[in-house]
Specification:
The protein is of the alpha/beta class. It has one domain: 3-Layer(aba) Sandwich (Rossmann fold). It is 37% helix and 17% strand. It has 13 helices and 17 strands. The strands form 5 sheets. It has a 7-stranded parallel β-sheet, with helices on both faces. Strands 7-6-8 form a 3-stranded antiparallel β-sheet, with no helix packed on it. Helix 1 links the parallel strand 1 and strand 2. Helix 3 packs across helix 4, helix 4 runs parallel beside helix 7 and helix 10 packs across helix 12. The longest helix is centred in the N-terminal third of the chain and has 21 residues. The chain is globular, with a radius of gyration of 20 Å. The N and C termini lie far apart (54 Å). Bound molecules: uridine-diphosphate-N-acetylglucosamine (UD1). The site of uridine-diphosphate-N-acetylglucosamine (UD1) has 24 residues, from strand 10, helix 8 and strand 11.
C-alpha cells in the first residue's frame, strides 16, 4: 500500500482522532488540523492525541494556516465543525461561520492553489443524518411518506407519534435511504447540508473525487462528556456519573441509529480507498433503531452502581427534534462493502468502561436553561 500524505481537519475531536489513529496505524503520513475549541477541549491538547501525527493548531476559516496544512496532501478528510444542534439555534452566525464559511475556505484553497489541486486525489467530508429531518415512514393503508416536523399543537398535546397524513392512522418507521428528500430542522443541519452540497458540487466540477458521509448518532470513547450540547449518550453518561438521572424529552420512545465510532472510521477508509464512492453521499449507521429510553436505562445499569435511579421522563419537547430516523445502509453496503461491526450492547460496554474513569462536568441544566430562555423547549 502506498504511504499517503493525509490531512484530517478536526483531527483532535471525537471522530477525527479515531480516524487519525487508524490512518497512522495503516502507515500513512498524517497531519491533524484543529482549533482545540474550548467547549470541547477546554483549551487543552487532548492526551489521546496520536504522537505519530503532526499537529497544526488552526481555524478552518484562517486561509493562511489552512493553506500550509493542505500543501502536499493526497487526501483530505474534513471533519472539523462546530457541533451542537440546539446551540446552533441561538449562535447562528457562529455555526454558519465555522461550518459553511470554514468549508468554503477549504474549497477555495483547494481550487485556487494549483499545486494543492493537482495533488489531492480524494476529499471526504463529514455530513450528518440531521439533514434529513424526520426519517422515512410507512402507513399500512397508504404506503410510504416523508413527513416534515410534527406541528407544535400536536406536540403541545403530547402526541408524539407520527400519523399518516392521508388516513391519520398510526404509521411505522422505516430505514431512511439517501434518496429521502432533505429537510434540515436546525441551523446546524443546514450547515451540514451546505458542507455536503458544496463539497460534492465543487468536487464534481473540478473532477476531484469527493465523498460525503452522512453520520448517524455516533457514540464511543473520547466523546466530549463535559459538552452538554453533544449527543445523547455522552449527556446521559455525564448525568449518571454525577449521580443525577438522565432527563428524557418526549416519552423516551423516540429512536435513533447509534453507530460506534469505529464503524464511522471504517466508512471513511472505504470512501478513501474506493473509487465507486466518488461524487456521492452515503449513510453511515447500523440500520437498527434504539429508543432513547433504552439508552438511558442501559447507561444507568452500567454506570449507576450504588445509586439506584430511573430516568426522568419529562414529556416535554425540544424544538426541531424528530421522532425517528435510522439508516437504510443498503447503498454503502452494496457499493463499498461496509458492514457495521460493533453491536450497540458491546459498544456501550466499551463506552461505559471508559466513562467510569473520566471526570465529567454535568452541564445539562445550563444547556437546558439556555434552550428555555430562547423558547426552544417546552
Ligand atoms: C445528533 C447530534 C448531531 C448529529 C446527529 C447525527 C447533537 C446535539 N446532535 O442529533 O450533531 O449530526 O446526532 O450524528 O450533538 N434527548 C433527551 N435528553 C437529553 C438529550 C437528548 O431525551 O438530555 C433526546 C432528544 O430529544 C432526541 C434524542 O435524545 O429525541 C437524540 O438527541 P441528540 O443526541 O441531540 O441527537 P440528534 O438530535 O439525533
Amino acid at each position: 500500500m502506498k504511504r499517503e500524505s493525509i490531512l484530517v481537519t478536526g483531527g483532535a475531536g471525537f471522530v477525527g482522532s479515531h480516524l487519525v489513529d487508524r490512518l497512522v496505524e495503516m502507515g500513512h503520513d498524517v497531519t491533524i488540523f484543529d482549533n482545540l475549541e474550548y467547549q470541547v477541549h477546554q483549551g487543552r491538547l487532548p492526551d489521546y492525541l496520536n504522537r505519530g501525527a503532526r499537529f497544526i493548531c488552526g481555524d478552518v476559516r484562517d486561509a493562511d494556516v489552512l493553506t500550509r496544512a493542505m500543501e502536499g496532501k493526497d487526501v483530505i478528510f474534513h471533519q472539523g465543525a462546530a457541533v451542537g444542534v440546539g446551540q446552533s439555534m441561538y449562535m447562528i452566525r457562529k455555526y454558519v461561520d465555522y461550518n459553511s464559511t470554514g468549508g468554503a475556505t477549504l474549497l477555495d484553497i483547494l481550487i485556487n492553489n494549483r499545486k494543492i489541486r493537482d495533488r489531492v486525489r480524494k476529499v471526504v467530508v463529514a455530513s450528518s443524518m440531521s439533514i434529513y429531518g424526520e426519517g422515512l415512514y410507512t402507513c399500512d393503508n397508504c404506503g410510504d411518506f416523508t413527513p416534515k416536523l410534527r406541528p407544535n399543537r400536536q406536540l403541545e398535546a403530547k402526541q408524539w407519534d407520527i400519523m399518516c397524513p392521508e388516513c391519520k392512522a398510526p404509521s411505522r418507521h422505516k430505514g431512511t435511504p439517501e434518496s429521502k428528500p432533505l429537510f434540515p430542522t436546525s441551523i446546524y443541519a443546514i450547515t451540514k447540508r451546505d458542507h455536503e452540497e458544496m463539497f460534492l458540487v465543487t468536487g464534481k466540477s473540478y473532477r476531484i473525487p469527493t465523498v460525503a458521509l452522512r453520520y448517524f448518532n455516533i457514540y464511543g470513547t473520547r466523546q466530549a462528556l463535559s459538552n452538554p450540547y453533544t449527543g445523547v449518550a455522552a449527556i446521559f453518561s455525564s448525568r449518571v456519573l454525577n449521580k443525577k438521572p438522565p432527563v428524557i424529552f418526549e416519552d423516551g420512545l423516540q429512536s435513533r441509529d447509534f453507530v460506534h465510532v469505529s464503524d464511522i472510521v471504517q466508512a471513511n477508509i472505504l470512501a478513501m480507498e474506493n473509487q465507486a464512492a466518488d461524487y456521492t453521499a452515503f449513510n453511515v449507521g447500523t440500520g437498527r433503531n434504539i429508543t432513547i429510553k433504552h439508552v438511558a436505562e442501559i447507561l444507568i445499569r452500567r454506570l449507576g452502581a450504588g445509586h439506584p435511579m430511573t430516568p426522568r421522563i419529562e414529556n416535554t419537547f425540544r424544538e426541531g427534534d424528530i421522532r425517528h430516523c435510522y439508516a437504510d445502509i443498503a447503498k454503502i453496503r452494496d457499493m463499498l462493502g461496509y458492514e457495521p461491526s460493533v453491536q450497540f450492547e458491546d459498544g456501550i460496554d466499551e463506552l461505559t468502561e471508559w466513562v467510569a474513569n473520566q471526570v465529567a462536568e454535568d452541564g445539562f441544566e445550563r444547556a437546558r436553561a439556555e434552550l428555555e430562555q430562547y423558547g426552544l423547549t417546552q
